[in-house]
Amino acid sequence: MAENTNSVNNELDYHKKKKKEEMKQQVITFALMIVFTIIAFTMVEADLDKLFVIPILFILAIVQVAFQLYYFMHMSHKGHEMPSLMMYGGAAVAFLTVLTLLVLVWW
Amino acid sequence: MSNTIAQKKGFGATLWDYLTTVDHKKIAIMYLIGGGFFFILGGLEALAIRWQLIVPENDFVSAGFYNEILTMHGTTMIFLAAMPLIFALMNAVLPLQIGARDVAFPFLNSLGFWLFLFGGILLNCSWFLGGAPDAGWTAYAPLSTTSPGHGVDFYILGLQISGAGTLMGGINFLVTVINMRAPGMTYMRMPLFTWASFVTSALILFAFPALTVGLFLLMFDRLFGSVFFDANYGGNSVIWEHLFWIFGHPEVYILILPAFGVFSDVFSTFAKKRLFGYTAMVFATVLIGFLGFMVWAHHMFTVGLGPAANSIFAVATMAIAVPTGIKIFNWLFTLWGGSIRINSAMLWALGFIPSFTIGGMTGVMLAAAAADYQFHDTYFVVAHFHYVIVGGVVFGIFSGLHYWWPKMFGKILDEKLGKITFWTFFVGFHLTFFIQHFLGLMGMPRRYWVYLEDQGLDLGNSISTVGAFFMGVGALVFLYNVIYTSVKGEKVGGDPWDGRTLEWSIPSPPPHYNFAQAPLVRGLDPLWIEKTEGRKGMTPAEPLDDIHMPNNTILPFVMSVGLFIAGFGFIYQAEYTGGFIAMFVGMGITLGAMFTRSVKDDLGHHIHKEDLDKGAGM
Amino acid sequence: MSSHEDVLNPKVMPEEPEKATLEGKNKFLGFWFFLGGETVLFASLFGTYLALKGSTMDDNTSQNLFELPLVFIMTMLLLTSSLTSVYAMYHMKNNDFGKMQLWLGITVVLGLAFLGCELYEFYHYIHHYEFTFRSSAFGSAFYTLVGFHGGHVLFGLLWIVTLMVRNAKRGLNLYNAPKFYIASLYWHFIDVVWVFIFTVVYLMGVI
Question: Which residue in chain B has the smallest CA separation from C24?
């Protein structure tokens, strides 16, 4: 019995450590997101060339969203296969929708 | 908490039981009644349309009223008849087919039903409150934004409410299939109906939000003074068309895929053969679902999207013929060499193949963008979509009802009456719509309330109207059959068709916990496998134990009533203070019910193993 | 009844309390799917906005209206609230209910501040520029997209506060853990949408 509790405790310790490790990662992620945001705002404020700024803004936004999904919302963890499938499915439909409304409305 | 199985009780108690139920089998019955009611309503509207068109320049209805019945026929049939009847079948058998005791979200399931019902009632209240919507079921702006009166407002609010219910249903079935399967029931062992419902649910999840947004924009334009579709303020009505069809095209696959699933199950049961090309069938189902999202603009070829866009959407549309063809051939090969039994369910399935194939072929014709300029907005289109929706979806629903009626109610629908229904409806259907191809090719535009005589349209229209009444008679016979069977029909056992899938391994109608012990699934057509090995039923996968079931609740009903009231409030808020108040009272009721749901624990109850019917679910 | 209590209040909290029961697993999956649907909902709103972005009827164009400092503050508020809700979930997994409530409380405060900024922004546009929901198609699209997001923030706040108050006395168990978890997922999703709003609406609006 004692051994059993011990192993439970060990496991708990292990998990606690793992969670702490993960929390550290998440704080780093957060810092990166802040940095990206600042970069995005400064680039726009700096009045750089439009064709240069817009793609970078997009890339920064997508990376930020990926951070949010994979780290903050834990999509990188096991057991998120179906959520990923449906999020990517939603993203694909979303992409088509936005693209259409961008290019197939005015002519 | 004690065992609260429904005992024999009075009318009030039964009513209360149905108002509060979260049991998917009872919800299925309510969907069936609700959907059946609206199907009759939509059918009467169809008959009125055909009666108006029986002779040239008829004056059975006025032009304005014609627009209303035409709009309501389409809207009712798609949203309030076909969808709920599909949901009725899904609720009735999907959990049974995967060996589950319940759906993943019993509460949401019930909420979905009540939202559908109150949305449908709200929409139909328009008849008595100054006129129904009259801008067509597609409600294209600016026709819909400038339509006088409140008809279109009822359309917006009614569909918004019932659409929310559908979305919940979709999520519920997705999670049910993923999380609630019995031990051994892998994805590639699921019956085709379950697979089709699964894919359909995914389509619902991705398609309905576009409709939600479209309806919101239309509502803001009509009721709150925004200018999304008003060209005077820089608005653009093409946005509505895109949003509507981004939803609208997947919607037709949402309807047809479950019907495909029904036919697959019916063919394999009554041919006594494993479904031919099961893997290909699953693949084709998923592929149709996937392609279904990339073709919506084929409804808009004549809008002027340009040759590049038109070509892309034309090719994508034609591509859908490939997986559909795979399915047609697999059904034929399932029949080939089978020991075929022809009964009502099978008749509908057999009638479906040629009917739907015609609809598919005209679909490819319409997909050719250049030719579509000729077909667009003629009766050719009307003929096409009735061939796929009636010849596919309605046939599928009838087939499914005949097939699963004994599972739902414990009695087989009368065969003789079933055959009369089929033949009158089948003949009437082709009489009504086949001729419309030619009317369309001769240039008769759709949605017109009269046509001139001696333009070659007279005879065709008369034939079409006669056919419509045949269909009406067929539907009436079916209705009579339902009553006749429930009064005179004999009780049958759990497995009247010598079935292959799990739903036939339990009593009919099933106990409310479905399976006393979860069955152990050892392959595709699990019950058939056990039968071929000489066993009577499924081997249980777990010892007999207490069963955990969800509690009944009135909250879904209350939430839906709240939205119903709020719906009226939104429509009348600009004119009457009462409307303004109703808007807040209604939303308050709904939010209050949501709050109650959130703070009041609902832990469900246990059925003790001593109370389980002995032998049930074995 | 006792069996529920035992099952929902185990001696040792499992590793992932939000997914320890079947109800929890269902909620988890169902809510993710709902977010998949929400993606399409917001995409439709974004698409509408992008289509009508140029439909200004007067001088109230995105370039003239938007002021980046306020947007930057709002972004920081919402981004930080995302991190605080991560902290809350971290403490939930450690079964430390008090700290979880604390971090959720901070999240709520940040969310309220965000909403306050947004209300100020709308007020400013309406009274200072007479830029309203009805003044142009651009106005309709802007207020609808950003307002839908604001509505989501408001709903999220009400939801989280309800959960906090309801469970304040009894602490964490396997019945409410999934509820907290999906509420935090919802909150993150709100932030995801905001990332696109500040990029597509505001930043690309002033370029």
Answer: B104
